[in-house]
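Would you kindly consider the sequence and fold I have copied below?
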Amino acid sequence: MSMRIRTSALTAVAVAALAGTVLTTPAADAAPKAAAPTFLSASQLPPHPTSAWTAGPVTEGFPEGLGTCVSTEGVPSYDYRHREFRTDLETSAVQLTVVADTATLAKALAKHYDDLIRTCADRIEKAYPDVEAEGRDYGTLPVEEGARVRGLHTETSWGATDISLLSVGRDGRTVTVVQWGQMGDFGDAPVAAFKKTTITAVNKLY
């Protein structure tokens, strides 16, 4: 079962984990709305050995594909925008941008998303006994207000195995989340290239 197929089912895990979570409400003196953040292009994703990336349009709203580990539940209503990417094979990616009302709120939101990714493997295993999940921390990146990269591997009892790389970064009031995924395990993860993609994503926001 691929990560694409499992995404809808695992969305419930993130939603349940976020029940009761509350971040600080937007400040009354929030800064005026800034220009919309810029997104990654297809050529800035980790290169695929046999298939070129195709970028979809920038779309309003929260991407369903991030629901495996990240959700909007329990946080204030922000301006969510995303772009999805595909290859001709079983590899996909998505970038989310969130513009908060203040840098303080954005910092809290970035930590919140990173915490969800950090605990995602445990939540998957608790909710789905036939799935084994493992998360790895690939460290922080010195870009703008910072970014962190993590990995997630899942394997079902019938042998389906998937690997994802996820990162959270921030530039001022804007948070970006990037996810890359395909069939495979940690040995198939292009960690160095994904770190470069994450740095590009954060630098490119504005």
Observations:
- Confidence is low (pLDDT under 50) at residues 1-22, 24-31.
- Residues 103-118 form the longest helix (16 residues).
- Residues 168 and 177 are 5 Å apart (CA to CA).
- The longest strand covers residues 131-141.
